């Protein structure tokens, strides 16, 4: 898949009712130019998959097949091709967030479920901004990414660095005695503002969540929450957000290091 296929990508994500924008598709292709693929059926481009390598761990996303072309093995072929590509990059673990349509295909390819996430949606309530939450200065980005690595055990500099660069005004943090206690970010989507990722301590999480909702006041929002983080689910509930859909985080290969309790919001199903 190249930049010339952005139109195909947008058509398929729009057809599935997903939230990605042209900027999301462009980011995938630019972050992994050799690892995004188009599937063809009888000479027509009908499917997509993107990958993103984070050293030994990789993410697969945007597994989409045109409704008229489904059931012909295009999705499975794209997945197998992506796995081969990632093996050639010496990846030991591959992760993704599966929809109920995708999960059976991934299980056949030896992905195993790790945990469930729910996409909460709603209209952000009008709220005052929390005094403890501030916008991060660009010189703090490296510290925020280091905080994320320590708290989640995940190496996400490639994706986080790019998101921070694209939306620097959206990175909000809680600090105590100069130490980062959490961060949250958000970006525009085709249907709603996607809030996340948010990595935080138990105290900072609710403040960051409230701050993000306050900054989206009155707008439709999506936020993907690991259900193991019961406190985050409570905050979403208490702000009137409701579950729109569920995803299963799955992995292939070596068991992934993970710490769902420190994750108050994922980056979205396509970014993990
Ligand atoms: C998930 C998705 C990519 C699968 O693509 P696909 O090309 O239909 O996948 P495949 O043909 O390889 O496999 C689909 C399975 O469903 C079966 N199937 C049969 N008829 C089908 C039909 N009309 N539509 C879809 N699947 C059908 C296939 O036989 C196959 O099972 P099998 O391997 O036991 O034969 C596609 O349904 C899609 O784009 N869904 C919406 C987006 C989505 O949820 N993506 C997954 C994100 S995690």
Beta-strand content: 25-35%
Architecture of the largest domain, according to CATH?
Answer: 3-Layer(aba) Sandwich
Mean pLDDT: 94
| Level-1 CATH class name of the largest domain | Alpha Beta
Structural shape: globular
Tell me about the biggest sheet?
Answer: 12 strands, mixed
Bound molecules: coenzyme A
- The helix/strand series, from N terminus to C terminus, equals HHEEEHEHEEHHEEEHEHEE
How many independent structural domains?
A: 2
CATH domain fold name of the largest domain? Aminopeptidase
| Secondary-structure content class | alpha+beta
> Measured on Cα atoms, how large is the radius of gyration?
18 Å
N- and C-termini, Cα separation: 21 Å
SS summary, helix count? 8
Find the count of extended strands (DSSP E, 2+ residues): 12
Helical content (DSSP H or I, runs of 4+): 25-40%
């Amino acid at each position: 898949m190249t930049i010339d296929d952005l139109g195909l990508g947008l058509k398929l994500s729009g057809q599935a009712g997903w939230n990605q924008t042209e900027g999301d598709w462009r980011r995938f292709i630019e972050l992994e130019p050799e690892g995004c693929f188009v599937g063809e059926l009888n000479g027509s481009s009908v499917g997509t998959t993107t990958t993103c390598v984070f050293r030994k761990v990789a993410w697969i996303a945007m597994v989409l097949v045109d409704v008229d072309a489904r059931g012909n093995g295009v999705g499975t072929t794209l997945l197998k091709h992506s796995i081969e590509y990632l093996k050639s990059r010496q990846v030991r673990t591959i992760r993704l967030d599966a929809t109920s349509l995708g999960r059976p295909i991934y299980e056949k390819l030896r992905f195993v479920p790790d945990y469930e996430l729910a996409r909460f949606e709603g209209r952000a309530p009008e709220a005052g901004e929390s005094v403890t939450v501030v916008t991060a200065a660009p010189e703090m980005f490296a510290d925020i990414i280091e905080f994320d690595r320590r708290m989640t055990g995940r190496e996400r500099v490639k994706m986080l660095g790019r998101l921070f660069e694209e939306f620097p005004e959206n990175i909000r943090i809680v600090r105590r005695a100069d130490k980062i206690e959490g961060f949250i970010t958000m970006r525009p989507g085709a249907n709603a503002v996607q809030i996340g990722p948010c990595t935080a301590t138990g105290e900072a999480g609710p403040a960051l969540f409230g701050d993000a909702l306050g900054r989206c006041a009155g707008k439709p929002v999506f936020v993907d929450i690991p259900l193991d983080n019961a406190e985050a689910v409570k905050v979403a509930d208490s702000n009137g957000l409701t579950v729109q859909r569920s995803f299963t985080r799955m992995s292939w290969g070596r068991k992934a290091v993970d710490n769902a309790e420190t994750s108050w919001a994922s980056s979205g199903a396509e970014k993990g």
